[in-house]
Amino acid sequence: MLQVRGESIISPGAKQNLIPLAIPLSESSSGSVTALLRWPTAPPGMEMPVVEVRKHGVWLLSKNVDQYIHRILVEEDANHSRESNNELFRASAGAGVELYKKGDFAESRISNLDVYLLRKVGLFPDIIERKVMHHFEKGDQVSALITGEFYTKKEHFPGFGRPFVFNAEVLLKVGRKLEAKDAARGALKSPWWTLGCKYQEVADIAQWEDEQIEYIKEKVTEEGRQEDLKKGKAPAQVALDEAAFLLDLASVEGTWDDFVERIAECYKEAGLHDIAKFVLYRD
């Protein structure tokens, strides 16, 4: 399906300069990589998400593969591009038939594609963010704020910081600086590679200088590890925490390859040998 859409299929081991938790699938002509995300310690109930890999981390495209395929088929059907339409439906093989029947969008009598996708397919970050911006364009700040808040509900995108970043931007837009600062600080409690933008952009709203980065740099020193162990933290947990901290640090400048070996060692120390192997795997 990705090939039919004009993307080049790439090797799952083509991970140079990419976040090591990604399983690359395809690359577009603009150079953006679509991948699956293998989350080492996934939040409960999380399937393997589909993401766009960016320099500083990932952008969530879909919470799972089925939702991603479903959305592609609906969009193709709605756009009436008959040739590629048929080709895509053929490429989706059995999966497509189960998820979506051609003509369902027209039959639904829902005129807005985004509304159909949210109601019938699932929640997608880009659509929710677009919805908020439409509210602003109409001068409806209240609906924009309500939708921004809805986006952050933890059952919607567990583990991802992006909803909190966007909500902080929304609050800032309406002049609620203090609430925006709190929302941004909340976002930085999530993995920094899930923010959907550079760390610095969020740190600026949070009104933090380099203290968070310095704190994390201290945590990954031998002294930091020993301190955690003395506090009674299990060695496996200390190793997992260190891996998470290193991923955060790598995301700041997008220097993934500098950290990958130590990250793999941490997963090995935590007993996650499969994840350690996966992190190191590359062509």
Secondary-structure map:
Blueprint lengths: L7 E2 L12 E6 L5 E5 L12 E5 L2 E6 L2 H14 L3 H10 L1 H7 L4 H5 L4 H9 L3 H13 L3 H11 L10 H12 L3 H11 L11 H8 L4 H9 L2 H9 L4 H19 L2 H14 L3 H8 L3
InterPro entries: PAB (IPR045287)
Protein name: Cyclin delta-3
In short:
This protein has three domains: 67-121, no CATH class; 125-208, Serine Threonine Protein Phosphatase 5, Tetratricopeptide repeat (Alpha Horseshoe), CATH 1.25.40; 213-280. The chain contains 15 helices and five strands. It has helices at 65-78, 82-91, 93-99, 104-108, 113-121, 125-137, 141-151, 162-173, 177-187, 199-206, 211-219, 222-230, 235-253, 256-269, 273-280, and strands at residues 8-9, 22-27, 33-37, 50-54, 57-62.
Number of helices: 15
Kindly report the average pLDDT value: 91
Q: Please tell me the total number of domains.
A: 3
Distance between the termini: 24 Å
Biggest β-sheet: strands ordered side by side in the sheet: 1-2-3-4-5
How much strand?
A: 5-15%
Rg, Cα atoms, Å: 21 Å
CATH architecture of the largest domain: Alpha Horseshoe
- Oligomeric grouping of the chains: single chain
Helical amount among residues, as a percent range?
55-70%
Order of helices and strands: EEEEEHHHHHHHHHHHHHHH
The name CATH uses for the topology of the largest domain is Serine Threonine Protein Phosphatase 5, Tetratricopeptide repeat
